[in-house]
Amino acid sequence: MSTSDWAELLDEPWSAQETFSAPPELDDCTLASCHIDERATSVTLGFDARRIPDGAVPGSAESQTNALEFFVTFTSVTGLRVSGWGGAAGGSVRMSRSESGGIEVTVDASAGRISFHARAALLSRARAYRASDAE
Question: What is the pLDDT of residues 69-100, one digit of tens each?
């Protein structure tokens, strides 16, 4: 599965299609955050992209935005495993459909690894913005 196919795994893929004309490749994004909520059995991964595909965000050319942040929330998480920890920032993320119909997620970062199974995933937030030219 291509790293741009992640949007097809969402419970509401149309929400990603409305937000992004073309979903960014996960390999072009930096994993900026990982929030594990044991009460809601959810994991939210936050991504930052400084290389936005042409037309990825409707209206971005007119507004001169050059960066994008988005968050994917995985629900009904089971089998959570965390090996090592120094933060997940900068890790590579792989998502795939499991045989049971859920989503298998693996985050490989230099300081550790996170893996889990989720029943569903949603695009919980996204915004395009103008990042400093110095970054």
Answer: 899 999 999 999 999 876 556 678 999 999 98
Strand-by-strand arrangement of the 92-97 sheet = 78-83, 112-118, 103-109, 92-97
Structure token pair of residue 47:
């991504």
Per-residue HEC secondary structure of the chain comes to CCCCHHHHHCCCHHHHHHHCCCCCCHHHEEEEEEEEECCCCEEEEEEEECCCCCCCCCCHHHHCCCEEEEEEEEECCEEEEEECCCCCCCCEEEEEECCCCCEEEEEEECCEEEEEEECEEEEEEEEEECCCCCC
